[in-house]
Design goal:
The complex is a heterodimer of chains A (459) and B (196). Chain A is of the alpha/beta class and 459 residues long. In chain A, helix 16 packs parallel to helix 18. Chain B is an alpha/beta fold and 196 residues long. Chain B contains six helices and twelve strands. The chains are: A alpha/beta (459), B alpha/beta (196).
């Protein structure tokens, strides 16, 4: 899409891996969140698996009846006084948002967290059109001030250290130099953003769930930034992917029990706001965005990726994500879920992502809507190979491996050679030409193979 | 734009799976606890809120007088007009920017997560529970249900323009996962559990 070729996951991970203590810190932080998720899930141990099954079944039903639910939602939202827009792709979404801003005569807008607007690159588009956007989620504001995209869908600046945030805030918000106290920094952001909330007339939010039965939509935050934005603005724009629809209000009970527990280990987010009608004298717009979702719906092997409720649990548990960082996925949604969503949008650009996995299956095990993420990663690998999107080195390597593994004699002699080399000429493998040697030591070679041992020892 | 609508719907219709996909039975999630008030209070303290049992509105007023706020206090509860100014009919929400404490009534609480359901009717101005520095919710102690399924059973068919579950004070952990209370919304949340 862009003229400048983007670096792929291996190169970007290598960059992240250059600072080993930082990788360890990132890894441990995310694992700690994964553990909090486990504890929260355990508090509902009698119901947890049934809740996951129910959530998955509701989403199954949604995918099978999406067109009807969308029109039902539209009809009810219109009756509630909400203006409904349809966007086929990112460009159309951005144009719709710009036209709403223009109609409102606004040059400035506050925005709460919306991964969809990241996917559509809305901020860049609006900036080109002279509109100033302020991200109001603390983590998003931090990465926005730093000129970066979020590295995690729930915790956008999980890769930043507090000392660095202290520096950033000293530069942009005038906090005392060298002060990295989270309390002080959060207070500074509170004051800084309160001024934005009080002075902006248009506010944009994402949507966590939209209810077909009632035409209402739900937005979940801990900070209260979505509500501060929209209740003080004249115009509320809510951007949502078409897959965010759920059939009935009662289904929110299932999803709100799962969402925050899976995301951060909280029993629920501080605010679960249900928007049904605009405030008197104010406007409420909802933009329904396709941007490849209807296409993904038609891919049988991958359609379940549309069940995602964006909790981020798959990232927190992923051994690759934890050690390569969110930016190594060069996509709005990182981690295992990002790796199965992105190839649908651009097969060539994201051909690396399905390989950024060990296929260990931990992502599928924690997913609150039971998406078979690791199986889809494996499916994408095959799809990519069929479409000639796998680079020569990887292809050649796999071909050689297939030859060796299907030929017992060759396999044995290669094994012998390998063990001999590791023992006698370690420099041959412990060098920068061997990607397995990066950031890790090669294993100690045994003197004999299992087969040799077995032949000697079997009775 | 309407063209996109037709295109999207046609594509979704063509690509959505055709097999039968029934909705699950939600009656499979019964209440797991009967000590609802205790559970509510325990969870609330875990998420940074504070519960105070009171016998009546006079006790709330007394509590507020002995723990004075040094700023503007507003309420939507007529019984508390003696200590806080009423939130008047909807007007410019910016007018609430200097509110120190807002006291509003809650419809019901949920024991599993200490969330309290409130709607626009409970606070007149939508901005009220978010823009105030400190928030207090008066909740009848009997109005606590076990879990979110029961909560939505209560909301079945109910009309509201804007409603929100509020669980504790506004918070963030975006800076190195250090929990800080008071991100953009209320810095504290006090729940007055009204005994009768």
């Amino acid at each position: 899409m862009s003229a400048v070729p983007t670096l792929k996951h291996p190169a970007l991970s290598e960059r992240f891996n250059a600072d080993e203590p930082r990788v360890d810190w990132h890894d441990a932080t995310l694992w700690w969140i994964r553990e909090k998720r486990d504890k929260a899930a355990h508090t509902l141990y009698e119901d947890w698996e049934s809740l996951r099954n129910a959530a998955s079944a509701i989403k199954d039903n949604v995918l099978g009846n999406l067109a009807d639910y969308l029109t039902q939602f539209e009809q009810n939202a219109l009756a509630n006084g909400i203006q409904v827009h349809w966007a086929a792709d990112a460009v159309e979404h951005n144009q719709i948002v710009l036209s709403i801003l223009k109609d409102a005569g606004a040059q400035r807008m506050v925005k709460s967290k919306s991964m969809l607007t990241e996917e559509c690159h809305l901020n860049e588009y609006l900036a080109e059109n002279g509109i100033e956007v302020v991200d109001t989620d603390l983590g998003e504001r931090i990465v926005q001030l730093a000129g970066e995209p979020p590295s995690h869908i729930v915790m956008p600046c999980i890769h930043w250290k507090k000392e660095e945030i202290g520096e950033l805030f000293h530069e942009h918000l005038g906090t005392p130099k060298g002060n990295a106290d989270p309390q002080l920094l959060t207070e500074a952001a509170r004051q800084h953003l309160r001024d934005k909330f009080l002075t902006r007339r248009v506010a944009l939010t994402g949507v966590n769930f939209a209810v077909a039965e009632t035409g209402e939509f739900v937005v979940c935050t801990n900070e209260g930034n979505a509500d501060m934005g929209v209740h003080l603005a004249d115009v509320h724009i809510a951007s949502m992917g078409i897959e965010k629809i759920i059939p009935r209000r009662e289904h929110l009970g299932v999803f709100l029990r799962l969402l925050a527990r899976s995301a951060t280990g909280q029993p629920i987010t501080t605010y679960s706001s249900h928007f049904k009608k605009p405030r008197d004298g104010a406007q409420m717009h909802i933009v329904l965005v396709d941007n490849g979702r209807s296409q993904q719906l038609g891919r049988e092997a991958f359609r379940n990726s549309l069940k995602c409720i964006r909790c981020g649990a798959c990232m927190n548990t992923c051994p690759v994500y934890r050690r390569s960082g969110g930016h190594s996925y060069h996509n709005a949604v990182a981690g295992p879920i990002g790796a199965i969503l992105a190839p649908n949008l651009d097969l060539s650009k994201y051909s690396d992502l399905p390989f950024a996995s060990t296929l260990c299956g931990s992502c599928s095990n924690v997913c609150p809507v039971k998406i078979n993420i690791h199986e889809q990663l494996y499916e994408w690998r095959q799809e990519l190979t069929r479409n000639g999107k796998v680079d020569f080195g990887k292809k050649a390597g796999l071909k050689i491996m297939a030859t060796v593994l299907s030929n017992p004699g060759l396999y044995r002699s290669m094994g012998k050679m390998g063990r001999w080399t590791l023992r006698n000429m370690p420099g041959m493998v412990n060098n920068s030409l061997n990607p397995w040697f990066k950031q890790r030591d090669m294993p100690e070679a045994p003197t004999e193979s299992f087969r040799e041992w077995y032949l000697k020892n079997r009775k | 734009m309407s063209n996109s609508r037709e295109q999207i719907l046609a594509k979704v219709r063509a690509n959505q799976p055709q097999d039968e996909r029934p909705l699950p039975d939600l009656s499979a999630f019964p209440a797991r606890s009967s000590e609802l008030q205790d559970q509510f209070m325990t969870v609330l303290s875990l998420i940074g809120g504070k519960a105070i049992k009171v016998a009546n509105y006079a006790a709330i007023e007394e509590y507020l007088r002995s723990n004075p706020q040094h700023g503007r206090m507003v309420t939507s509860i007529p019984e508390l007009y003696g200590i806080a100014k009423p939130i008047l009919a909807p007007g410019d929400p910016h007018e609430l920017a200097d509110v120190e404490l807002a006291i509003i009534s809650g419809e019901f609480g949920v024991a599993e997560n200490s969330a309290i359901w409130v709607t626009e009717n409970n606070f007149v101005q939508r901005a009220t529970p978010f823009i105030c520095q400190y928030l207090a919710i008066v909740l009848p102690a009997q109005q606590i249900c076990a879990n979110m399924h029961q909560a939505y059973q209560r909301l079945q068919g109910l009309e509201y323009n804007f409603g929100v579950f509020i669980a504790g004070p506004s918070k963030t952990a975006d800076i190195e996962q250090s929990l800080v209370l008071g991100a953009h919304g209320a810095r504290t949340m006090t729940v007055f559990l009204l005994e009768n």
